[in-house]
Structure formats: structure tokens, C-alpha cells
Amino acid sequence: MTKLPLVLVAAMLVALTGCGRRPEVSGLARRLVDRQLPTTDDTGSRAASMAMVGRALAALKSHDTDAAEDWLASAIALDFSNPYPYHVLGIMAFDARDFGEAAGTLAKAAALHRQPNEWALECHLLLGAAENHEQEWAAARAAYEVALRVAPDQPDAKRGLQAAEKHLERQRRKEEPAK
Q: What is this structure's pTM?
């Protein structure tokens, strides 16, 4: 029996399983790359930070998630109060099905979004969905309530709010003492 060098075996496993390849940009991130970032009148650190978010979106468009993460980290370092790098990182985590990370990052973005625009609405909708995945019903309800303040007729926010309230009601019933 021929013994293969360990490096060769590892390379074969990578080739067969696809490990080591860059993850594909899919789902929400794919839609995100073609959106326009809001403009800013700031010529200082916010403008530079937004330019880096733009570069991150360009990196995502070419499926380079590592470069996108680097650009977003740089954007945060320049202006930690800019919600957009957190927003994009949250979407990337959501797409990777890391809902705990997505919820934490989107919560930062949600706290920083000051304008009730489409980005803020999306942020709260995704935050609610991530919290639902994490079975954090009260946090999901709060996120959907904010989304409904931004867009009162938003159907996904209405459905998400109803689902979170249903789970909270079930939870409350389970916690009630037996009669």
C-alpha cells in the first residue's frame, strides 16, 4: 500500500469538498452590491468611511468577501458611528446563516441609523429575522415594531411581528403556574 504525503491528502480533501474556496456572495448580499449608498455632505471621516463601504460592496460584487470585510473594518475604524459598514457585515453574517453574529452586528447598525430610509427599514427587518432565528422573540418584536414605525404598511414587518408575538404568548403560557 502506497502512503500519500499528508499535504497531498489535505489538498485532495480540499478539492473534493470545496473547503478553502471563497464563499459565494449570495442572497441578500448579491442584491446589496447594486444598491446606491446614501450620499453625505461630510467631507471628513464619514465621507472616507462611506467610500470604503463602497469599495467593500465592489469587493462583494467580485465575490471577494475577505477584501470586503477588510474594507468594512477600515470604514468602522475611520468612523465607528457610521451604520453602513455594520449593516453590510450584518447582511454578510445573515447570508452565512450566522444569525447570532448577524443580530449583534445589525443591532449596532440599527442603533446608529438616524434617518428612516430604506437602509434603516431593511436593517430592522433583518434584525427581527435574525432574532427570530435565535429565538429571541422580544428582541424580534422590538425590531419589527421599529420597522413598522419606518414603514407602517410593510408586510414582512407585520408578519414578523405577528410571529414574534405568537411565540411570546406561547412562552408566557408555558411559564404560567399550573392551576
A: 0.77
